[in-house]
Structure formats: structure tokens, C-alpha cells
Amino acid sequence: MKSKQTLPVGYREIYSVDLQKDKKPAVLVNVLAIIIAVVLFLPANRYIPLTTLFNIGVSESLYFARLGVIVGGIIFYMILHELVHGLAMKIFGTKKVKYGFTGMYAYAGSDDYYDKKSYIIIALAPIVVWGIVLAIINVLVPYEWFWVVYLIQLINLSGAAGDLFVTVRFSKMPKDILVRDYGVGMTVYSAE
């Protein structure tokens, strides 16, 4: 279904969340992110200990290269994550996507309204796309590069806690909802 540029007659606001201003959902999302990170970290650390990342081993330059790739990879990943949200918005008919960074959150948003199914796809698209890509890369890289890629994957999944939060929340709402995502917050409307 294509996004709508105007709210249909008879729709009213039924829910609103702004992770910059609403403390309770912001804390919940951040706790969820920590839980996801811990759940992902523990089994991976048993498989390949994190200490391997800090092992200088044969080459000091390789050690610093891995650390540089982690920092650069995380920044690059955050941009790619939001670009995938934006691409999904465009696929559903959005003409103009707004991108930004608040200091706490990077975001993609628009002034359009999305139906429930479309919005859930938009919310989950980066998790799925980058989850698959990073999992494949993780399998292919040498042992000493495992944590470089896995830390980016960990950020992919734990950093998407807000996307997971709204997916669960919106999936319980009426079928006719329309979601307007303006970046770090969203408003949900329904005719029911």
C-alpha cells in the first residue's frame, strides 16, 4: 500500500511516542537494547572470547586496523541503517525522507502516513537486511576479525530496540492504523 500525504477524514490520534521527550518508553527501549546486547554477547563470547579482539598477536598494525574498522564500521552502519528505513519509505510511496541525528538517535522520517503492515516493514527492514549481510560476513571473516563484525551486528540488533518496540506495540493496535513517523517519534491514528 502506498503512503498517504494527508490524514483521511475520521481518523484521530490514538497513540504518540517521542523517544527524546517521553522518559518511560525511552528507558524501556534502552533497557531492551541492553538486554539484547547481553543476550547476543554471552554465547558469542563463549564461542570466541572477546579477548581475541585485544590480542595484538603477530601485528600491532593489524590490531589498530581492527579497532579502526570497528569505529568506522559502527558509524557507517548507523548511516546505512537509516538509509534502509528511508529506502523502505520510498518503496511505500514517500517522496521526501528526512534524515537527522539528535545526539542520541539517528533517524529517518517523513510527513507521510503509513498503514500498519507497511510501517512494520519499514521498521524491521534494516534489522533484516543488515542482520543477514552481517551474519554472512561474520561467517566469512578470519577468526581474528570475528568480533569486529560481530560488534557491528550486536549494534544492529540492540540498536534497533526502538524499531522492535514500535513493531510489538503497533502490532497490537487496530488494523486500520496509520503511522506518521517524524524521526525520533511517531503518532498513530485510527478511525476505530
Brief overview, please?
The protein has helices spanning 23-47, 60-91, 116-140, 146-158, 161-171; strands at 12-18, 98-101, 106-109, 114-115, 178-181, 185-190. The chain is α+β, with helices and mostly antiparallel strands. It has one domain.
Give a quick account of the main beta sheet: strands, pairing sense, barrel closure: 4 strands, antiparallel
The sequence of SSEs as H and E is: EHHEEEHHHEE
Report the strand count. 6
**Biggest sheet, spatial arrangement of strands:** 1-6-5-4
Which residues sit in consecutive blocks of at least 5 with pLDDT less than 50?
Answer: none
Describe it for me?
The chain is 55% helix and 14% strand. It is an alpha+beta fold and 192 residues long. The chain has one domain (12-190). Strands 1-6-5-4 form a four-stranded antiparallel beta sheet. It has a two-stranded antiparallel ribbon with strand order 2-3. A hairpin with a 3-residue loop joins strand 5 and strand 6 (185-190). The longest helix is centred in the middle third of the chain and has 32 residues, at 60-91. It is elongated. The two termini are 19 Å apart.
Structure characteristics:
5 helices; elongated; 192 residues; 55% helix; 4-stranded antiparallel sheet; two-stranded antiparallel sheet; alpha+beta
What order do the helices and strands come in, and which of them pair?
Elements: E1 12-18, H1 23-47, H2 60-91, E2 98-101, E3 106-109, E4 114-115, H3 116-140, H4 146-158, H5 161-171, E5 178-181, E6 185-190
